[in-house]
């Protein structure tokens, strides 16, 4: 295994450059409780689109499907841009917009009406902040997209992690308004934390939209746009993105809907010769997934509806009505009764799709989010211990990282307490080779290989075999302290 390339793919080389060390936000202790509560309610559907959606024919619709997560600092305009996309693609009528305009005005939040399309909870509308990941669907020429609108506020980072871990591509929204880009980008701003998390969680391509170009402090200024691009570029590189290949910058106004469905008018922005947002989304290329691989669908939610229904994104393989599968880690044998893709019943579905699957053979209360619906012949590994390579980002109060360190592990849809039981060896940042000296503790910026234990069995895979199920983050008291990848699993683990 080429360790150097491997490290790069997890942006573990970022510690070499100072500007690559990510500085996640300081979460006050009282915020932690909010985070924990929020973890219970991670997903909401945007109902404005349901009618349009149920008329769509999914089977026989050969367009590819991609999950796109909207990330970025609080108030950057993620929900407004997401709402505008739905409006421009004809899924929200004028009457609904007028209703939202009135409601926003009544709450003294006039400019928030577009965000109300995505922010459907009363709490979100009152505070003007997304809490749960909003979901909605739209199509371009080549692709069916599911939008996952993540919250920007630092208290809700676990919800953002859940959204990003289901995403194929990301739209990083940056506000160009005077002072707002700066706050988001500085130490403690979520622009940095979100980029680092997105990369770790497998979001390989980013569209970086410089938003609020209409704002009176910006006025479609080329200088401001160039300034943001030039400051973001080194940071994105240090976070492991190949900026030329994997990142596309473009200016938009989410609120006005400009440079979104059609290119911005030259009279307003004479210097922009690039694509609009829909074109850029349409053109994004990602590595095709293997429809014949072993079936893997991490379960993000479940409910009772004439049986047990589980919800998730297919990370590998395909599923058909009538298939026998296993729910891991509890090895429950189940049968697929029905498959729903964007609310349409389908007989089979391939990788990359967001599905609801009705199962027989298991009760809803016997499933937890983070369980994985898996092939019987090649079930996903279920373990209580694994070996991983970690990059330490920023420990609380610059604490040292030793055996006995406890944190919350976020891996695909799993959120579980874990303990570092042994540090095996440290990786030399220069040579990228394991150091011979025995290691008892490490500090910020270090790369270390260690043994990690969890109390309850979790489903995972080696990063080398299955990146999406083998990358993770460690968080303590509301802060991301490390990112990592699973390098070894106990040998007996996967026997079903
Ligand atoms: P969180 O969900 O809390 O992280 O915020 P968000 O990124 O979803 O931001 P949201 O869409 O709620 O917008 C925040 C504020 O910025 C609202 O007042 C919007 O009207 C305003 N805003 C968003 N996009 C634009 C834009 O293109 N131009 C201008 N002028 N204002 C915008
Ligand atoms: Mg929002």
Automatic annotation (TrEMBL):
Q: What is this protein called?
A: Tr-type G domain-containing protein
Does this UniProt record's set of keywords contain GTP-binding? Answer: yes
Among InterPro entries, the record links this protein to: EFTu-like_2, G_TR_CS, GTP-eEF1A_C, P-loop_NTPase, T_Tr_GTP-bd_dom, TRAFAC_GTPase_members, Transl_B-barrel_sf, Transl_elong_EF1A/Init_IF2_C
Annotated TM spans: none
GO molecular function annotations of the record: GTP binding; GTPase activity
PANTHER family associated with the record = TRANSLATION FACTOR
Outline the segment boundaries, as ranges, of region: Disordered.
1-29, 42-61
Identify the stretch annotated as signal peptide in this record. none
Tell me which residues make up the Tr-type G domain. Answer: 63-289
Q: What protein family does this chain belong to?
A: Belongs to the TRAFAC class translation factor GTPase superfamily. Classic translation factor GTPase family. EF-Tu/EF-1A subfamily.
Q: Does the keyword Magnesium apply?
A: no
Keyword list (alphabetical) reads:
GTP-binding, Methylation, Nucleotide-binding
Q: Which SUPFAM superfamilies match?
A: EF-Tu/eEF-1alpha/eIF2-gamma C-terminal domain (SSF50465), P-loop containing nucleoside triphosphate hydrolases (SSF52540), Translation proteins (SSF50447)
**What role does it play?**
This protein promotes the GTP-dependent binding of aminoacyl-tRNA to the A-site of ribosomes during protein biosynthesis.
């Amino acid at each position: 295994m080429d360790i150097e390339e491997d490290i790069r793919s997890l942006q573990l080389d970022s510690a070499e450059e100072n500007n690559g060390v990510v500085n996640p936000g300081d979460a006050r202790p009282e915020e932690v409780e909010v985070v924990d509560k929020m973890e219970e309610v991670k997903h909401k559907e945007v109902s404005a689109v349901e009618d349009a959606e149920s008329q769509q024919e999914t089977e026989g619709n050969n367009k590819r499907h991609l999950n796109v997560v909207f990330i970025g600092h609080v108030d950057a305009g993620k929900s407004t841009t997401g709402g505008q996309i739905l409006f421009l693609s004809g899924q929200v009528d004028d009457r609904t917009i007028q209703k939202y305009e009135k409601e926003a005005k009544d709450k003294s939040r006039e400019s928030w009406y577009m965000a109300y399309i995505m922010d459907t909870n009363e709490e979100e509308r009152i505070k003007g902040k997304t809490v749960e990941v909003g979901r909605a669907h739209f199509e371009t020429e080549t692709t069916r997209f599911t939008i996952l609108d993540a919250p920007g506020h630092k208290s809700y980072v676990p919800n953002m992690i859940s959204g990003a871990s289901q995403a194929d591509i990301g739209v990083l929204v940056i506000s160009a308004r005077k002072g707002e880009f700066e706050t988001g980008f500085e130490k403690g701003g979520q622009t940095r934390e979100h980029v680092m998390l997105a990369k770790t969680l497998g979001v390989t391509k980013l569209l970086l939209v410089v938003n609020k170009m209409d704002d009176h402090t910006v006025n479609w200024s080329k200088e401001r746009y160039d300034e943001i691009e030039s400051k973001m570029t080194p940071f994105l590189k240090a976070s492991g993105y190949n900026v030329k290949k994997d990142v596309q910058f473009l200016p938009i106004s989410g609120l006005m809907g400009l440079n979104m469905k059609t290119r911005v008018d030259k009279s307003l922005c004479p210097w922009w010769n690039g694509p609009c947002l829909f074109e850029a989304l349409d053109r994004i290329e990602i590595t095709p997934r293997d429809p014949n691989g072993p079936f893997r669908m991490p379960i993000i939610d479940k409910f009772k509806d004439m049986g047990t229904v589980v919800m998730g994104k297919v990370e590998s393989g395909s599923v058909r009505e009538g298939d026998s599968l296993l729910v891991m880690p509890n090895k429950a044998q189940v049968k697929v009764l029905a498959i729903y893709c964007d609310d349409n019943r389908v007989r089979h579905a391939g990788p990359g799709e967001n599905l609801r699957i009705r199962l027989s053979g298991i009760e809803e209360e016997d499933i937890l989010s983070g369980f994985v619906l898996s092939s019987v012949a090649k079930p996903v590994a279920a373990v209580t211990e694994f070996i991983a390579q970690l990059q330490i980002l920023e420990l609380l109060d610059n604490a040292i990282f030793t055996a006995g360190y406890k944190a919350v592990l976020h891996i695909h849809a799993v959120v579980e307490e874990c303990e570092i039981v042994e540090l095996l060896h440290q990786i030399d940042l220069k040579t990228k080779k394991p150091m011979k000296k025995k290691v008892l503790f490490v500090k910020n910026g270090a790369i270390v290989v260690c043994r990690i234990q969890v109390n309850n069995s979790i489903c995972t895979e080696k990063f080398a075999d299955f990146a999406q199920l083998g990358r993770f983050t460690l968080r303590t008291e509301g802060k991301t302290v490390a990112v990592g990848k699973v390098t070894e699993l106990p040998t007996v683990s996967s026997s079903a």
